[in-house]
Structures are given as structure tokens and as C-alpha cells.
Amino acid sequence: MSGKKQGVGATRLAVRPVATVVTVESAPAMAAPSSAPVTATETPPQWGMIYLLARIFYAMRSRTEDGLKPFGLTPMQSTILATLKRWDGLSSAELSRRFGVTPQTMGEMIANLERRLLVARRQDPANRRALKLTLTPEGRKMVRLCDDALEAVEGEMFKSLSERELKQLQRQLMTLHDDMGLRADLE
Fold first, then answer.
1. Boundaries of CATH 1.10.10.10 in the chain?
2. Is 38 helix (H, G, I), strand (E, B) or coil?
3. Entry pTM
4. Which of 53, 73, 102, 160 is the most buried (most CB within 10 A)?
């Protein structure tokens, strides 16, 4: 390689044939945290699946929160509304089991949604002590708005995947979902 100075962001490779070591140096503006040489036989550090999924989850959660901000809802509140749209008449206790939160936490979330007139409690005719939750007309409207906002977030997140790749990813995630025993809470 020539001895010319590289521009900002350019990478310079120096090969030492005796040791077969490739040293990668970045320009000062793009310096990597570690300046240790990387040999041709080493593989770059691999992220474990749990670490990778966690990073994706937190980035997705942040983008979802941003998408729901105009409606004053958290991702959990939006999911509760979407769940009630699909399974009308669940109790607060059933929701707390589905979402893995304490009954008190779910009760607070339901109370907030009830104050906003998005959900209503009605007495269960089969058990007069039990209260079933249902969406109000305003709650159904909110679910449609949230669905549209989250569809836009999803479109942005998966824009680099083809339709075929997206369907394949969805199938793989459903397999993982089922393998973790989460299918039962959908029925």
C-alpha cells in the first residue's frame, strides 16, 4: 500500500507476511475503542442471541414509545387495548397473568385507561363478583389510531427486509414464541 495519508474515515491495512497478521487502523476521527491487532485466523466477537434480541427489544420499545406519544399511551397500555379488542370480556386478573405483572400493577393500568374512558368494567353475569373489561367506543377508536402508528413504526424497523424475508422472520419468531410456551396465553 502506498505511504499516502488516508482521508478521514478511510481504513489502512498493513500486512505482515511473516506472521500473517492484518492490522486495521482507523483514521483518528473514527478510532475504534480497541487498537489491538486482529489476526486473519481470529473471528470477530459474536453477540449471543439473548444479547442481540435484548438490544433489538430496547430499540423497538423506544421507537414504539415515540410512536405512541401523541396518544398518551405506553406500549403496555396500547397492548392491553389491543388484547381487549381481540378478547373482549377478560378480567383484570386474566390480563395480569397474560402480561406477567402483579394484579395491583394491572389494576393501576386499567384504572388509568378507565379514567380516560377507553375501557369499561361490567359485571360478569356468571359471577356477580367478577368484573369483565370491554373497550368503549373511544377505546376502539384509540386501538385503530395506535395500530396505524405502530404499523408505521414496524414499516420503518423492517424496511430493509423483503416481503419473503419478513414472512420468514415472522414464522421463526412464532416458532420461538411457541417453544417458550407463550402460545397458550393467546388462546
1. 57-157
2. strand
3. 0.69
4. 73
